[in-house]
Amino acid sequence: MTSMTRWTVALLMVLMVLALPVVASAQKMTTLRVGDQIGSELDYGPYWIAVEKGYFKEEGITTVRKTYPNGPATLLDYNKGELDAVMAGLGPFLQAASQGSDYVIVSSITKGNAPLVARPEIKAAKDLNGKRVGTPGLGTIHDTMLTLYEREHGIKVEHVSAKITDLVAMLEKGEVQGVLCWETVAATTVRAVKGAHYLAPLPVIPGAESLEVIISRKIAQGQPEVALGFTRALLKGMRYIDKHEDAALAIIAKAMNVPDAIEVARLAKTQVKVTDPYMEPKSSQIIYQALLETKKITTERVKSYDDFTQRFVDYSFLKKAEESLKGWEPKK
């Protein structure tokens, strides 16, 4: 064997050895199918930050996003085994549990996020009495928040369920006099409909719980490292938003993919809080009770709110993620 041949063989062997870690790393990547809702990029901002900044990739996770009209529609696919994780409202999660669905809540992701936008002639809550108000659907957290708004102000409105994408046009045409929906659809409505305004930017319950993140119990129990990595990436996303708000809004606006995205995101951001990973207990209990009283859930499978939290909420992954991130600071 000539010197040149020996050198060539040696070089090939070195290249093969160097390539091994890359192959191994690629083989360890886990794909998670994640469901969310149309126009909710700001509400799930930590997810988009985790995607853009590579936090999921660092955990060996690749996410495939699927969007739906609302939370209940998302959970239908989850129950069919077509999703591994879901970001949606507490109302739909409570109803799904009441109907026999099984999952693990690993984190809260959004507080607030139930603004009521009204037509220009509606100046106060009393002006809505007897009027029509649009929501993204009967099973959504926003429909429940509208019920709580009625109770708080002693009024009665007609709940009009519609596709989230239709609510702007319905308000503009006068088919409804108000819409209670998620951001950034509310901000888009305020900007698009002449005279439309935030009648109630925040829910009637201060710091109200809104949206959570679930993962399948099969993954939580069978692949706990994946559940931990998924939760840690989201927590990193929350901390990035808390530390670098302007940069985070730019990333979220990019995900929104609409011409005036950054202006919409800036208008909407005060109506949501996406940096607290723990569920707000008081409002969560009120939401549970409201669903029970309106017969959207029963006590057959979920006997009480405490029963729900004991069986469906697992903060162990979140606490481990927090412990592992002590001293960690997000880079811009």
Please, could you describe this protein's structure?
With 332 residues, the chain is α/β, with parallel strands linked by helices. It folds into 2 domains: 29-112 and 209-324, Periplasmic binding protein-like II (D-Maltodextrin-Binding Protein, domain 2), CATH 3.40.190; 116-200, D-Maltodextrin-Binding Protein, domain 2 (3-Layer(aba) Sandwich), CATH 3.40.190. Helices cover 48% and strands 17% of the residues. It is built from 15 helices and 11 strands. The strands form 2 sheets. It has a 6-stranded mixed β-sheet, sandwiched between helices. A 5-stranded mixed β-sheet has the order 7-6-8-5-9. Helix 2 (45-52) crosses helix 10 and helix 10 crosses helix 15 (316-324). The longest helix is centred in the first third of the chain and has 26 residues, at 3-28. It is globular.
